Amino acid sequence: MMNKGIDREIDWRLRVFESLSYPTIILLPDRTIIAVNGRYLEKMGVEEEEIIGRSCREVNLRNYPEQKFPCAEQGECPLARAVHTRSGQSVLLKYHDVYGGEGWEERVFSPILGADGEVDFIIESIRDVTRVKNLEKMYSGVRELIDQVVQTSVSGIIAADRQGRIILMNRAAEELFGYSGYDIDNVNIEDYYPPGVAREIMRKLRSEEIGEKGKLPITRVTIRRKDGAEVPAEMTAVIIYEDGREAATAGIFNDLRDKLEVERQLKEAHAQLIQSEKLASLGRLAAGVAHEINNPLTGILLYASMMREKLEKDHPLEQNLRYIIEDTQRCQEIVKNLLAYSRQSNPTRQYFQLNEALGESLRLVRDQKLFLHVKVVEDAPAAPVLVNADKNQLCQVVINLIINAVDAMDGNGTLTLRTYEDRPNRKAILEVSDTGGGIPAENMSKIFDPFFSTKEVGKGTGLGLSMAYGIMEENHGRIYVKDTSPEGTTFALELPLVPMSDVILFDSIG
Ligand SMILES: Nc1ncnc2c1ncn2[C@@H]1O[C@H](COP(=O)(O)OP(=O)(O)OP(=O)(O)O)[C@@H](O)[C@H]1O
Ligand SMILES: [Mg+2]
């Protein structure tokens, strides 16, 4: 299929040319086609005579009428470029086959130089790269999809190379760790954890101690944000291997702060439920006992008083009767407190400033000897904090807290009394803090129980806090230990805050 006049000596070359599996033509620098192989004729569906002696431009335009060849535009002809640069050139073309399908071909132009260094011929061969192109397209589509999945994941995803340099960080990870894409070059994966943690994770990943080698099942970790804050998180990680060697590591992180907070609240609510159930049943028992005891006590007191009145002065039994009366009164006091705890008395509500209750309570106890070396700090806001509760009952509670606080300090330390508004939660708060020794953890669940006391016999009945608990519930408030440690304890009383709009009502009443 060669042009006539070609020397026989180069016949083997022609055969090589003919057997090339790519459609190929040979051209002169002026674009005249001088040879064509069978593959080319097959692909284009033409005869040799239709091609030889014509210019490639003519042939191309005829065979690909809808195709916009680069040579149609000035200066873009790859053949001219190959001639000019004396080096191979290639061009990628999109075509439509006879069935309307789309394909891609790569045309490679290789110049053949003569002895003078000038280009004598150009070999143009066509390679169909449709399959490669389609694969490429599919791959980039999949890649895009993966990118999107990674970027929009609610879990933080981070990948780092062997040196710990960050090679991928999605938006959730940026948020969780507080870094932005700009920081990527300046951080190392070790900066994402408190010291030593990254190494420990790598050690576990490489060992088989927990699960498969190279994989870390869901694990609780502490991560470190850019601002230094340490945050609890849950993570899984993998080592990415390439040819059996570690190439990178990837980790998926979930912020545990919300989850842990919910868990904590649940636990607290549960503990509170148990506590109030326990107190409710104890309350019923106490109420029953108190009620039963109250009547005989009244009798004892009445008869003892009557007897005492009838005794002559300085009668030897007079002193004994006085003891009976005093102890009976003490019993009555206990019964009264028990009834308060078990909510057998009805509160008489009034509007008042929380500070007033504080001031009045303090006045009632301050003179006691115990206060001698106690420094009292009052911390109240300028604006009044209004509540609607039984003031006398509240004073009783405050007095109990103050006495407990002073007891805890053994009469030596600082007593801080604080009132304030918790506007967002619409609460009025009164806090009593001391610098005493604190409440041991094992006692925390018992301090509100009736008769729980660590004080020596005769000093405490263990009714103060249980009574306070009952009173606060009765007044739609609550009492709790806000803080306790060997440095001191803070008890808080919480009552519904009276909105400012009720002040008018308050004014008209009080
Ligand atoms: N501020 C405090 N610091 C340390 N421990 C405290 C404090 N307040 C209460 N407690 C502990 O809680 C226990 C129960 O207190 P509660 O007021 O109910 O009874 P009490 O003070 O022992 O006796 P009562 O109040 O009946 O005289 C106390 O015995 C003490 O162990
Ligand atoms: Mg007490």
TrEMBL record:
The keyword Ion transport is assigned to this record: no
A Pfam family matched in the record: HisKA
UniProt cross-references to InterPro entries, sorted A to Z: HATPase_C_sf, HATPase_dom, His_kinase_dom, HisK_dim/P_dom, HisK_dim/P_sf, PAC, PAS, PAS-like_dom_sf
SMART domains: HATPase_c, HisKA, PAC, PAS
Record key words, sorted: ATP-binding, Kinase, Nucleotide-binding, Phosphoprotein, Transferase, Two-component regulatory system
First-level EC class: transferase
Tagged with keyword Heme: no
An individual GO BP term: regulation of DNA-templated transcription
Enzymatic reactions: ATP + protein L-histidine = ADP + protein N-phospho-L-histidine
Record-annotated PAS domain positions: 142-206
Molecular function GO terms recorded: ATP binding; phosphorelay sensor kinase activity
EC numbers for this chain: 2.7.13.3
Source organism superkingdom: Bacteria
All residue ranges annotated as the Histidine kinase domain in the record: 288-499
Protein name per Swiss-Prot or TrEMBL: histidine kinase
